[in-house]
Amino acid sequence: xxxxxxxxxxxxxxxxxxxxxxxxxxxxxxxxxxxxxxxxxxxxxxxxxxxxxxxxxxxxxxxxxxxxxxxxxxxxxxxxxxxxxxxxxxxxxxxxxxxxxxxxxxxxxxxxxxxxxxxxxxxxxxxxxxxxxxxxxxxxxxxxxxxxxxxxxxxxxxxxxxxxxxxxxxxxxxxxxxxxxxxxxxxxxxxxxxxxxxxxxxxxxxxxxxxxxxxxxxxxxxxxxxxxxxxxxxxxxxxxxxxxxxxxxxxxxxxxxxxxxxxxxxxxxxxxxxxxxxxxxxxxxxxxxxxxxxxxxxxxxxxxxxxxxxxxxxxxxxxxxxxxxxxxxxxxxxxxxxxxxxxxxxxxxxxxxxxxxxxxxxxxxxxxxxxxxxxxxxxxxxxxxxxxxxxxxxxxxxxxxxxxxxxxxxxxxxxxxxxxxxxxxxxxxxxxxxxxxxxxxxxxxxxxxxxxxxxxxxxxxxxxxxxxxxxxxxxxxxxxxxxxxxxxxxxxxxxxxxxxxxxxxxxxxxxxxxxxxxxxxxxxxxxxxxxxxxxxxxxxxxxxxxxxxxxxxxxxxxxxxxxxxxxxxxxxxxxxxxxxxxxxxxxxxxxxxxxxxxxxxxxxxxxxxxxxxxxxxxxxxxxxxxxxxxxxxxxxxxxxxxxxxxxxxxxxxxxxxxxxxxxxxxxxxxxxxxxxxxxxxxxxxxxxxxxxxxxxxxxxxxxxxxxxxxxxxxxxxxxxxxxxxxxxxxxxxxxxxxxxxxxxxxxxxxxxxxxxxxxxxxxxxxxxxxxxxxxxxxxxxxxxxxxxxxxxxxxxxxxxxxxxxxxxxxxxxxxxxxxxxxxxxxxxxxxxxxxxxxxxxxxxxxxxxxxxxxxxxxxxxxxxxxxxxxxxxxxxxxxx
Length: 880
Description:
By secondary structure, this protein is an alpha+beta fold. Helix content is 37%, strand content 24%. It is built from 23 helices and 34 strands. Strands 1, 2, 3, 4, 5, 6, 7, 8 and 9 form a nine-stranded mixed β-sheet that branches. Strands 13-15-19-18-17-21 form a six-stranded antiparallel β-barrel. The protein has a six-stranded mixed β-sheet with strand order 29-30-31-32-34-33, sandwiched between helices. A hairpin with a 5-residue loop joins strand 17 (512-515) and strand 18. Helix 8 (300-318) crosses helix 11 and helix 11 (348-382) runs antiparallel to helix 12 (390-400). It is globular. Mean pLDDT is 90; it is low at 437-445.
């Protein structure tokens, strides 16, 4: 076996399959693009679903990749077992209807055992197959030459996730030797495929040959697929002879940095080794995810990030690290992985900023959680309960991020125990809720193969022409290919050439007309989309028959296209202006370019200030006024990168790309339509800026006619305001509004003064109506007041004058009641509590309430019950 670094192993894998005719696919963003069924990219195949389900036909049916992936379903096992991780790299090779089992198996064996590649000892390799997969056994034994006793049957070797592709699988295991096995030799799990440390699974070969239907039955797939996955961390642990994945060059530099910060030795840490491992694992996940555009929040993937950061901080406490430290590990992650994932390096400052901010926030949250826990301890002590309930422990964990271990630690210090089983029940309920939310979405269904069968060539000529004569080559009508579609019908059609742009890259599809050779309109194009093989698919509403093979005149709606082009070019200018004003960390997180407006989503933590928005607008309008030429070239992806072309994160690009340059100010890879000169845009105006999710902002803007129309609408509103405020001109509106506001403030203060005087008059009358209730004096009155605030003011006067031990006030407005109870100092010292009394009398007014010992409030819907409530207060006090 060769001595290799993790980077060398990754490169060798990709190079091996490149030599076998595979296209190397770049690792996709951990944040799924156009796939709402996934929280994270969790495997190599997850990024290729569009190929496996037939939505898109790949240029090359052979694909290989090293895909970063996140899975957090068994986060508690990280650091406990030797190989669990929240983030891992999946080395994969895939065949989309091309080669199948024989090549998949033989190439796997060649890569592992050949002296030119990994050079593993063949005697140390075992495989498992599905018990019914005779074809796989025949290949392993007769083509590879593996002895039958090292080819084991496994009934569970079958891969499926709901409806969609499914099939048997074959797993390859490496024998680490008897000394690696922590189980007795005769243990039932002591075999290749069992739960043990001797035989380590290193490669899973999935043979997708069936389509699982909704009823649970299986149909053979017309195009069989291969999905092979090898965990990089596992293969590296074997090559580097590491007892666990954490002792490899993927993790050890991070662990060394944690040693430096904590002043603790990893090898001598005993049980605390787990904390080193958890932190090393989690910082990788967090760094990669933030670099890919995810940000901590209270929901979705943001919640996962927040949980990983907080788990790391709690484990750091076990290593005597009690201050923010995680951000110091980010450069180490970049150093280890940055050669293959350069965005880790370019986003490093931003990742550090986000993590540091989140750490500081959590340290504040810990303080809040501890205060809440102390309140729980007080209540338990009052009620003479000795155990913190599972629900309370889970509330602390879920709301404050307070780890249950910390709750247990504080509880034991104060003489309480904790219902850990109850906590586990609440945790399982949360997992079940999450599973239920995902269960209906995680199947990879095989879509209709009809669109995938379109194999005719279709050329897009819409960059230079908006009208063209072209032959109709495909018609899909009522879910089948036809030679003719009748008038007054809806169909999907493909032409040899088309000027109609198909929706992609955020730009909507073109609309327009189809005419016959006499110039008569025979169909309206209502939308244009992409077929799986890339043809532009026209969705049409016919007015006359459309006939296959006939030539038609295609005509794009020219003015609509022009408006779209203006908005699209403005989007490029906006993107660069955001980077100039806000920072290089800004990345596109989505866009929509229509004729009416442009919408641009981008990564940023904070709301833009008015000054920032104004500066961004100014920059874009400066570039428009400068009349910069907008040029496009078609070149190789390598040359485009050398030009500094901006690639949209998460997008996949082919070997040949289109580069759109705006005088070198903005250079982006883009297949969309653009104006020839920035002056064609006319005017740019941001209409809204808002947050749409954790760390994602949205700008909506308009250009040219749309911007002018928007400005006219706002000027009209301003003119109406001038008229209503009698400002005479719009220039005087602000001064007039300020004057009116000042007058309103003066009136408000005068009104408050009158209300205070009225309250004093009312209070003088109310305070004279004192009733005796046993040992206590009571004032219970219904008052005329504007709101609950006036009740509080009367209560404040009562507290100063102290005319009784207890005060009960009621305010009735239509069918609603507000009630207030206050206790004097003497009443409080006697053990009376306002909260107890309000709970006793609130049901009389059809409501409920609560509060502090000295004051409590209630609301209800039964004004007729006010007097009954007063009598109940009197009785309650007499009993006391």
